[in-house]
């Protein structure tokens, strides 16, 4: 488990099968496609002569360092993650991987999927399991009220929908 900043509480290192696949695909692309392309470009730039004033060479070397840093990060991160690839026994409660629809006091609805920190994307409705809202939703049932502290103050919402995909890795 990782430590939460400031409060020492452990944070889960969960990821959905889709999220793991995306990280593995990125790692594969960087290692098998992007790095060889950049390595070739650096090799060609180096052949042009003076490397100290060769912008293509300098930029290519910088790109290689960034690619290598990301490859190391992804390799280590994938070893640390736990893929959640089965549905919970009680699907009437909110757990990791659930699509949760909440309604605020004004009747506005939002739907989120609780996912790992490595795959959150609010544009898709993917909410990190480590976020205050997701932590407040875990274990709740339909019609439960959830209060969560936001930068604007306390916000209350009601759980109006909970659903799980048949298999968490399927769309």
UniProtKB/TrEMBL annotation:
The keyword Nucleotide-binding belongs to this UniProt entry's keyword annotation: no
Top-level taxon of the source organism: Bacteria
Domain called Transcription elongation factor GreA/GreB C-terminal: residue spans: 92-164
Keyword line: DNA-binding, Elongation factor, Protein biosynthesis, Transcription, Transcription regulation
Annotated Transcription elongation factor GreA/GreB N-terminal domain residues: 14-83
Listed InterPro entries: GreA/GreB_C_sf, TF_GreA/GreB_CS, Tscrpt_elong_fac_GreA/B, Tscrpt_elong_fac_GreA/B_C, Tscrpt_elong_fac_GreA/B_fam, Tscrpt_elong_fac_GreA/B_N, Tscrpt_elong_fac_GreA/B_N_sf, Tscrpt_elong_fac_GreB
Role played: Necessary for efficient RNA polymerase transcription elongation past template-encoded arresting sites. The arresting sites in DNA have the property of trapping a certain fraction of elongating RNA polymerases that pass through, resulting in locked ternary complexes. Cleavage of the nascent transcript by cleavage factors such as GreA or GreB allows the resumption of elongation from the new 3'terminus. GreB releases sequences of up to 9 nucleotides in length.
Family to which the UniProt record says this protein belongs: Belongs to the GreA/GreB family. GreB subfamily.
Protein name, entry field: Transcription elongation factor GreB
Species the sequence originates in: Marinobacter metalliresistant
